[in-house]
Amino acid sequence: MSIAQHLEEVRQRIAKAAHDVSRDASSVMLLAVSKTFPAEDVRAAFDAGQRVFGENYVQEGIAKIAALADLRSGIEWHFIGPLQSNKIKVVAEQFDWVHSIDRLKIAKRLSAQRPDSTLALNVCIQVNVSGEASKSGVEPDEAAALAHAVAALPGLRLRGLMAIPEPVETLDDQRVPHARMRELMDALRADGLDLDTLSIGMSADLEAAVLEGATMVRIGTAIFGARTYTH
Ligand SMILES: *Cc1c(COP(=O)(O)O)cnc(C)c1O
Q1: What is the distance between the alpha carbons of residues 162 and 204, in angstroms, rounded to a whole number?
Q2: Which domains, and CATH codes, for the chain?
């Protein structure tokens, strides 16, 4: 199947899950995660109507943004991977969104490095919702303090929360961490933060995420196929 056909299939999965909970499918943004796939695949997805793309690795993402410079004004680029302090400047300059904020130090540097000539960088706080020791993300009970501090930074615009839950098999089990994220987001809003983005759900659990209120799903494998190399 082509990338265009895969994209259509993913859009239909989102639409069906949204319909099941009486949500408008347009309230769920599809972020196509193109990490490890070449610029030509991003172009094929673009030609099939996809406009929002996510990358995990700074060098690879920057190279792809450069290779697709002719499409730059039509594409929104999201950085979704772990951020090291020595790569902050290019991310602040080149990307439109960062989903993986889990330390104030990194957020402050992104804010300081965001060029004055561009809009504020959209960011999400990454939450370690499954409590795995190896995963990045702030602990759920520390999210509020970090969110308030990030919201005050002039170069950033805090949009919401992101999580990568531990993979589990059944729909019911998949819904548990997503529901926890929705509750956390609701609590932060009740606390005065103006948030509109819940970035949860990947290829294997997008239905569970949409059922629980995801406003953005990050889909790689189901669009571009299995990844054949790792960094
Ligand atoms: C790779 C990745 C995805 C996409 O995962 P798939 O299972 O291939 O859909 C989503 N979010 C993050 C943060 C990723 O690193």
Answers
A1: 16
A2: 3-224 (3.20.20.10)
